[in-house]
Amino acid sequence: MEKILISGCLLGMNVRYDNKNQSIESEIVIKWQRESRLVVVCPEVEGGLFVPRPPAEIVEGGGEDVLNGKAGILNKNGEDVTAAFIRGAEIALELAKRFSIRIAILKEKSPSCGSSSIYDGSFSGKRIPGQGVTAALLRKNGIKVFSEKQLAAVQEYIGLLPN
Ligand code: SF4
């Protein structure tokens, strides 16, 4: 049974910075839950950040730049939280490796989990194309990352995977 790594907030866990979740209503996700396919992670909490916490954004770059030391992550109070984000990404990767996971479904727009869109670092609500730190690290290690808007594509991809 192909397991899937998934952002905790998508399954209703109140792990977001604002103590809320982004639960998705989806028959296929319910089916995957029943099949025990889903391995849940919140990289920011795993990295040592609290709930609630100030929102954070990548400054001048994307997740791959953070991993390369070319960009950092600040929270809205101006505190550098880069190390916690990197640690959380590493823990998510360890979890994926432990369960031989090849697929992740991560919450779009997050500085950790965003897979094609993130905020621009100005805390003004402006989004730019880019990925979060966990999405970048998982991709770097060969894991296919999807957003919560791509569940049909995930189903299709599972069907194409070699055993
Ligand atoms: Fe959700 Fe990922 Fe943010 Fe955790 S780090 S709250 S799982 S988007």
Silhouette: globular
The stretches of 5 or more residues where confidence is low (pLDDT under 50) are: none
Order of helices and strands: EHEHEHEHEEEHEH
Find the structural class using helix and strand composition.
alpha/beta
Beta-strand residue percentage: 15-25%
The set of bound ligands, ions and cofactors reads: iron/sulfur cluster
- For the secondary structure, the number of strands is 8
Largest sheet: 4 strands, parallel
Q: List the strand order in the largest sheet.
A: 2-1-5-8
Number of domains: 1
The percent range for helix content is: 25-40%
Q: Give the count of helical stretches.
A: 6
Gyration radius (Cα, Å) is 15 Å
Mean pLDDT across residues: 97
Question: What can you tell me about this protein's structure?
Answer:
Pfam families: 2-thiour_desulf. The protein has 163 residues and is of the alpha/beta class. It has one domain. It is 32% helix and 18% strand. The strands form 3 sheets. It has a 4-stranded parallel sheet, with helices on both faces. Helix 4 (82-98) crosses helix 5. The radius of gyration is 15 Å and the shape is globular. It starts with a strand and ends with a helix. The model has no long low-confidence stretch (mean pLDDT 97). Iron/sulfur cluster binds next to helix 2.
Structure summarized in a few sentences:
The chain is an alpha/beta fold and 163 residues long.
Name a few traits of the molecule.
32% helix; 8 strands; single chain; two-stranded antiparallel ribbon; 2-thiour_desulf; binds iron/sulfur cluster; alpha/beta; 163 residues; 4-stranded parallel beta sheet
